[in-house]
From TrEMBL:
<dbReference type="GO" id="GO:0043093">
    <property type="term" value="P:FtsZ-dependent cytokinesis"/>
</dbReference>
<dbReference type="InterPro" id="IPR003494">
    <property type="entry name" value="SHS2_FtsA"/>
</dbReference>
<dbReference type="InterPro" id="IPR020823">
    <property type="entry name" value="Cell_div_FtsA"/>
</dbReference>
<keyword id="KW-1003">Cell membrane</keyword>
<dbReference type="GO" id="GO:0032153">
    <property type="term" value="C:cell division site"/>
</dbReference>
<comment type="subunit">
    <text>Self-interacts. Interacts with FtsZ.</text>
</comment>
<keyword id="KW-0132">Cell division</keyword>
<dbReference type="InterPro" id="IPR050696">
    <property type="entry name" value="FtsA/MreB"/>
</dbReference>
<comment type="similarity">
    <text>Belongs to the FtsA/MreB family.</text>
</comment>
<keyword id="KW-0472">Membrane</keyword>
<dbReference type="Pfam" id="PF14450">
    <property type="entry name" value="FtsA"/>
</dbReference>
<dbReference type="InterPro" id="IPR043129">
    <property type="entry name" value="ATPase_NBD"/>
</dbReference>
<dbReference type="GO" id="GO:0009898">
    <property type="term" value="C:cytoplasmic side of plasma membrane"/>
</dbReference>
<comment type="function">
    <text>Cell division protein that is involved in the assembly of the Z ring. May serve as a membrane anchor for the Z ring.</text>
</comment>
<dbReference type="Pfam" id="PF02491">
    <property type="entry name" value="SHS2_FTSA"/>
</dbReference>
<keyword id="KW-0131">Cell cycle</keyword>
<feature type="domain" description="SHS2">
    <location>
        <begin position="24"/>
        <end position="225"/>
    </location>
</feature>
Length: 444
């Protein structure tokens, strides 16, 4: 824990320096695409409250001055599995974004999916030392949280205080300066497989880039795709990518649960490729142009020419109906949504006051998906697009760029994390806690 705490603190200081220099890059390392955005930071907007950290969440103005995307290589299930290929793809995206911005960047803040995320809800309580709550009291209450024994080979990716209570008053976002006797907090902690972060950091070093921050794709997608009311009252974001589907639950403007299903749009493409015996590139094109999950009477009549080039005339000149294509796609999409439903149930999503679900990510654009999802996941489902940010090219405003846009917001307006406070780090992980968010319903 100590090593990780210091690593996160070092990255936080690097991010602070990059923001003060006025330029930083954000990188979305996905399984189907790698996107890089270069941000120009508005110097007048940068302000940190106090030198000892204690909340970075200053409202920082920014605009996108460079953007590039390239087909992902060497990344599978959101994790790097072939270093040279991933390095080439990241270099390609970063260099193209730098060229458009006409500026060199040294620091990147990256996000990734996968790495087997596990969510924990922790609680801590201390007596306030003076009359009013100080920065030190917050550090003490965070240190009082019972950290579970989350296992060897795992690292803490996020550790965010999601609620403070002072005596009988709960739901406080910042209790500093308020008068009371007993301060308690709820903390959401997300751990991931440590090698995923280490491989990403090493890969960026090979690209001559410094990692100035790292985030979960599920988290940043949520902050870019949910409107304020949804973040406040409770909502789940389902981010359907190429090989992973990220799940995040938000409440009171904080993420309180995250998970990943190791299936996505590429699995649908693979099913089409195998069923029709055509190359994956053909299958992807057919899925994009004709795909869907709800068949109508007209779909039996509409034919798709497969146009292969194997040399076998009968095989190459085949046709299938749109209804047949939908019949291939639907079972896999249903399987993904059923698995998402299972994870949401395990997290206690049905205990939240609002059960809004927002679908985003590149694979969420399959026609009819929202209707199918509302049948499997619950009635309140909408398709989400990321917020508009200054300078973002039109081509990068779709659902497939939700995590890239979220990274901009994460870079410019980070939420408090455990390591933003001078927490004593000589604490050893103690009793284990079960992995769920049911603790949340007791606090609000």
């Amino acid at each position: 824990m100590t090593m990780l705490y210091e690593t996160q603190r070092a990255m936080r200081n690097m991010r602070k320096a990059a923001l003060q220099r006025g330029v930083v890059a954000v990188l979305d390392v996905g399984s189907s695409k790698i996107a890089c955005l270069v941000l120009r930071i508005d110097q007048s907007g940068v302000h940190y409250q106090g030198d000892s950290a204690g909340s970075l969440a200053g409202q920082v103005g920014f605009r996108v001055i460079g953007a590039a995307t390239t087909r992902s290589r060497g990344v599978n299930f959101g994790e790097i599995d072939a270093m040279p290929e991933a390095e080439r793809a990241i270099r390609t995206a970063v260099q193209a974004a730098q060229k458009m911005a006409n500026i060199r960047v040294d620091h990147v803040i990256a996000c990734f999916s996968g790495a087997e995320p596990r969510s924990y809800g922790l609680a801590g309580q201390v007596e306030v030392e003076g009359q009013a709550v100080t920065e030190q009291d917050i550090a003490r209450v965070l240190a009082a949280c019972d950290v579970p024994d989350y296992g060897a080979g795992r690292e803490v990716l996020h550790a965010q205080p999601v609620n403070f209570a002072l005596d009988h008053r709960s739901g406080l976002s910042d209790p500093r300066g308020q008068i009371g006797h007993t301060l308690s907090t709820d903390l959401h902690m997300l751990t991931v497989d440590a090698t995923a972060i280490q491989n990403l950091a090493y890969c960026l070093k090979r690209c001559d880039l410094e990692l100035a921050g790292v985030a979960s794709s599920s988290y940043v997608t949520g902050i870019s795709s949910l409107v304020e009311d949804e973040q406040e009252l409770g909502a789940a974001v389902i981010d359907m990518g190429g090989t992973t589907t990220g799940i995040s639950i938000f409440m009171k403007k904080h993420m309180i649960y995250a998970d990943t299903v190791r299936m996505g749009g590429d699995h649908v493409t693979s099913d089409i490729s195998m069923a029709l015996q055509i190359p994956a590139s053909h299958a992807e094109r057919i899925k994009t142009f004709y795909g869907g999950v709800v068949a109508t009477g007209r779909d039996d009549l509409e034919r798709i020419e497969l146009k292969c080039e194997t040399g076998d005339w009968n095989h190459d000149r085949r046709e299938v109906s749109v209804a047949e294509l939908i019949g291939i796609m639907r079972p896999r999409v249903e399987e993904i949504l059923e698995e998402v439903r299972y994870r949401l149930d395990a997290a206690g999503f049905d205990h939240l006051p609002s059960q809004q679900i927002v679908l985003t990510g590149g694979a969420s654009q399959i026609p009819g998906l929202d209707g199918l999802a509302s049948r499997i996941l619950g009635q309140r489902v909408r398709l989400g697009r990321p917020l508009r940010v200054h300078g973002l090219p039109q081509a990068a405003t779709g659902p497939g760029f939700a995590s890239s846009v979220g990274m901009c917001l994460f870079a410019a307006r980070p939420q408090d994390e455990w390591w933003d406070f001078e927490v004593p780090v000589d604490r050893y992980p103690t009793k284990s806690l079960r992995r769920a968010v049911r603790w949340f319903k007791d606090n609000w």
